[in-house]
Amino acid sequence: EEGGVATVRYGDQLIVTISDAEAHGSGLPRKALGYQYAKLIQEKLALAREQHTPRYLWRAAAYAAATVLIYLLALWLVVVGTRRAVEILETSAATRIKGIKIQQSEIVQGSRVTALLISVVRLLRILVIAVLTYITLAKAFSFFPWTREHSQRLLGYIIGPLVAMGEGFLAYLPKAFYIFVIVVVTHYVIKFVGII
Fold first, then answer.
1. Which of 2-32 are b and which e, b meaning 16 or more Cβ less than 10 Å from the residue's Cβ?
2. Is the pLDDT of residue 60 over 80?
3. Which pLDDT value is given to residue 194?
4. Distance in angstroms (rounded) separating the CA atoms of residues 102 and 156
5. What is the CA radius of gyration of the chain?
6. Contact 20, 6 (CB under 8 A)
7. Least reliable range by pLDDT among 10-14, 54-58, 83-87, 172-176
8. How far apart are CA 48 and CA 40, in angstroms?
9. Which tens digit of pLDDT belongs to each residue from 2-26?
10. Of 8, 57, 2, 55, which Cα lies nearest the Cα of 34?
11. How far is residue 145 from each of residues 22, 49, 61, measured CA to CA in Å?
12. What's the rounded Cα separation, in Å, for the pair 40 and 51?
C-alpha cells in the first residue's frame, strides 16, 4: 500500500494501482482486490513462460503440421471429387440432361444446362477451397502464442456473421410461423368457399 492506494508491482515496475472507489465497485476490500490482481498476473505470467518453452513450441509446430496435412488431404478430396463430378457431367450426364422446354419449344438446350452445372461445380470447388484455406490458417495460427490473436480475429470474421445470421433466423421464426398459419388458413378457406 502506498499513499492510500493498493499497488501491484512486478519487480520495480508498477502494474496497477487500486483506490477505495475502484475496490468498492468490486465488492472487495482494497487490499484483497490487490492480492486478487497479483494472483491473476502471476498465473498469466506462468502461462506465458510455459508457452514460450521449446517443448511447447515443438508441440505447437507438430499440431500446426498435422493441421496442414489434414488440409492438404481435404483439398485433394475436394479437387478429385469435383473433377469426377465434372467428368460425369461431360460424358454420361450430357446425353441424359434434357433441355428446358415450354410446350414444344426448347428454351435452353441440354448442353447449355450441362455447361451451367459444370460451372456451378467449379464455383463450389473454389468456395470450398477458400473456406478450407481460411479455417486452416486460423487454426494453425492458434497454436502459437505470437499469432493466436490473429487466429481469433480471423475466426471472428467468420463466426461473427454466422452467429448474427443464426440469431436473425431464430428471431424471424415466430413471424415465419405466423405467415405459415395465415397461408394454411387462407388455403382451407378458399377450398371451403369453392365447395359451397
1. eeeebebeeeeeeeeebeeeebeeeeeebee
2. yes
3. 67
4. 48
5. 31
6. no
7. 10-14
8. 12
9. 556 777 766 777 777 777 667 667 7
10. 8
11. 31, 10, 11
12. 17
Q: How sure is the predictor about 70, in pLDDT bands with cuts at 50, 70 and 90?
A: very high
What's phi and psi for 13, nearest 5 deg? -90, 125
Phi, psi of 189 (to 5 degrees): -65, -45
DSSP structure class, residue 16:
E
Q: Residue 37's closest CA among 16, 14, 13, 10?
A: 16
Please name the helix (run of DSSP H) or strand (run of DSSP E) that holds residue 17, with its range, or none. Answer: strand 13-18
DSSP 10: E
Q: What is the largest CA-CA distance in the chain?
A: 95
Residues 173, 179, 184, 185, CA torsion sign: positive
Distance in angstroms (rounded) separating the CA atoms of residues 69 and 108 = 44
pTM, whole model, 2 decimals? 0.57
Q: Which residues contact 156 (CB under 8 A, 6 or more apart)?
A: none
Residue with C-alpha cell 520495480? 12
- Lowest mean pLDDT: which of 96-100, 119-123, 161-165? 96-100
Average pLDDT for 68-90: 92
For residues 112 and 72, the model is more confident at 72
